[in-house]
Design brief:
This is Phosphatase PAP2 family protein. InterPro entries: Aur1/Ipt1. The chain crosses the membrane at residues 75-93, 105-129, 150-171, 213-233, 245-265, 306-323, 330-347, 353-375. By secondary structure, the protein is mainly alpha-helical. It has one domain. It contains 18 helices and six strands. The strands form two sheets. A four-stranded antiparallel sheet has the order 1-2-3-4, with no helix packed on it. β1 (19-20) and β2 form a beta hairpin.
Length: 418
C-alpha cells in the first residue's frame, strides 16, 4: 500500500469534520457544488473511513468498476419495458394492417446485433479481469466499461428507431382525413406566413446550405452524442438520453395518430422558383409513400422515409440533444448552436409547419420531465446521478475523455490511486 493511501486512511480521525479529496463525512459526498447521499454507494458502512473512501481508488467518475456501469436500474428497466412494449405493439398491429415487410428489413434489425454481441463480450472480459490482478486492471476495465455502455446504447437506439419507424407506417395507413388545414390555421393564428418565410430563406443560398447541413446532422449526432457521453463516463446521462429518445419517439407516434397530416409542401404546393436554393426533394420524398398508404391497398415496405408531420421529431430530438450535453465543457455550446439551427431548418427542409416545431419542443419537454420522474429516487430533481463523484482527477478525466486515461495512468504509476 502506498504512503499516500496510508496517509489518507490514517488521517481520517474525526468523521464529523474531516474533508478529504471532496468527502464530507459521515453520510454525504460533496462534489461540484452538490451533495449526494451515501445510500447509493455500492458497498461498505458509510461510517467506516476505509469503506466510505474506497471508491477513491475507482477513477473516472464510477464508484466500482464491477457495478457502476449498470447505472440507474429503474431507468434501464423502463427502457427495456418501453422497447418491449413497442415491439409487442408492432407484432399485434402488423397482421391487421395493409403494410407488408420486405425481407431486407431483417438486415436492418441485424445491424443491432454486433453491438449487442460486443456488449456481451466486454462484460465477459470484465468478469475475467476480477480474477486477473495487474497494474492497469482498473484502467482497462474502466475503458471497456465505457465501450460496453456505448454498445448497449447504440443497440437500444437502433432498435427504437426501427420499431418506431414501423409504428409510423402502421399509423399512416388510415382513411382518416388529413388535418393540414388546422395546422396551417394554427400558423396563421400565430402570425406566421409559411410561404413568405421559405421565400425569404431562398433568397440567401448560403443560409440554405447551412440549414440543409444542420438538418442532415441528426443521424451523425445520434452516433456522436452517445459516444461522447460514454467515453467521458457519463453513464447516467447516456441512459437518460436513450430514455428520452424512446419516450419522445413513442409520444410522437401517438400524437401523429391523432393528427394525421401530409406536411406544408403538400398543402401549400409552393412554386419551384421559391425552392431553388433548397436541397432537391428533401421535404417531398415521403409524399408518394404517404398517399399510397392512405389508399389502404397492400403496401410493401422496402425503403423507409420519415412520415411524421405533427409533431416534428427533428425539433424534439434537437431539444433532447441540447439537454443531454448540458454542462459538458467544450461540447455543450457547439451542440446548442447546431441544434438551434436544426430547429430553424425543420420548416424549409422538413416541410413542417411552425406548430409542428412547437409541438416537437413540447414532446421533448414532456419526455425530459417524464424520464426525470421515472429515474427518482436514483436521480433527484435538479441534481445529477447519486453515483459518487470522486476526485478532482476523475472530473478531469470526464472532461477530457480518452486523454484522461493517459493522464490517470501516470497517477497510478505514482501509486496515488493504486
Amino acid at each position: 500500500m502506498s504512503h499516500t493511501w496510508l496517509t489518507i486512511t490514517l488521517g481520517i480521525s474525526n468523521l464529523e469534520k474531516t474533508n478529504v479529496m471532496g468527502l464530507s463525512m459521515p453520510g454525504r459526498v460533496e462534489s461540484e457544488g452538490r451533495a449526494f447521499s451515501y445510500s447509493s454507494l455500492p458497498a461498505g458502512d458509510p461510517t467506516d473511513p476505509v469503506a466510505a473512501t474506497s471508491f477513491i481508488r475507482r477513477p473516472f467518475g464510477w464508484t466500482r468498476w464491477d457495478t457502476a456501469e449498470f447505472g440507474n436500474g429503474r431507468l434501464v428497466a423502463f427502457i427495456s419495458a418501453l422497447l418491449a412494449g413497442a415491439v409487442v405493439t408492432n407484432l399485434i398491429w402488423l397482421p391487421f394492417s395493409t403494410v407488408y415487410l420486405n425481407r431486407s428489413i431483417w438486415f436492418d434489425v441485424a445491424m443491432a446485433m454486433p453491438m449487442a454481441l460486443l456488449w456481451m463480450l466486454l462484460g465477459t472480459m470484465r468478469l475475467q479481469l476480477r480474477k486477473t490482478p495487474f497494474s492497469y486492471r482498473d484502467m482497462v476495465s474502466d475503458f471497456a466499461g465505457r465501450i460496453q455502455a456505448l454498445a448497449m446504447a447504440l443497440t437500444a437506439l437502433t432498435l427504437f428507431s426501427l420499431v418506431l419507424l414501423l409504428v409510423s407506417y402502421l399509423a399512416t395507413a388510415t382513411s382518416r382525413p388529413l388535418l393540414d388545414n388546422y395546422l396551417a390555421a394554427g400558423d396563421a393564428s400565430l402570425g406566421f406566413d409559411w410561404v413568405a418565410y421559405v421565400r425569404l430563406l431562398n433568397a440567401y443560398p448560403s443560409i440554405d446550405h447551412v440549414l440543409s447541413m444542420a438538418y442532415s446532422s441528426l443521424s451523425i449526432q445520434l452516433l456522436l452524442l452517445p459516444a461522447i457521453l460514454a467515453l467521458t463516463a457519463r453513464t447516467d446521462r447516456l441512459e437518460e438520453f436513450v430514455a428520452h429518445y424512446g419516450v419522445a419517439g413513442c409520444l410522437t407516434c401517438l400524437v401523429m395518430m391523432a393528427v394525421p397530416a401530409a406536411g406544408a409542401f403538400d398543402f401549400y404546393r409552393p412554386s419551384p422558383d421559391i425552392l431553388s436554393s433548397f436541397s432537391s426533394g428533401a421535404s417531398t420524398r415521403h409524399l408518394g409513400q404517404l398517399h399510397a398508404l392512405r389508399t389502404l391497398k397492400p403496401f410493401l415496405l422496402e425503403h423507409a422515409e420519415g412520415l411524421v408531420t405533427f409533431p416534428s421529431f427533428h425539433a424534439a430530438l434537437a431539444a433532447i440533444f441540447a439537454y443531454s450535453t448540458r454542462g459538458i465543457r467544450y461540447i455543450s455550446l457547439p451542440v446548442y448552436a447546431l441544434n438551434a439551427i436544426m430547429i430553424l431548418a425543420t420548416i424549409p427542409e422538413g416541410g413542417h409547419y411552425l406548430v409542428d416545431v412547437l409541438g416537437g419542443l413540447a414532446v421533448a419537454a414532456v419526455a425530459i420531465q417524464f424520464v426525470r420522474w421515472i429515474a427518482v429516487p436514483a436521480v433527484e430533481f435538479g441534481r445529477r446521478s447519486t453515483l459518487a463523484r470522486p476526485t478532482t482527477g476523475s472530473r478531469h478525466a470526464r472532461n477530457t475523455g480518452a486523454l484522461g486515461l493517459v493522464c490517470a495512468s501516470r497517477v497510478w504509476r505514482r501509486g496515488d490511486l493504486k
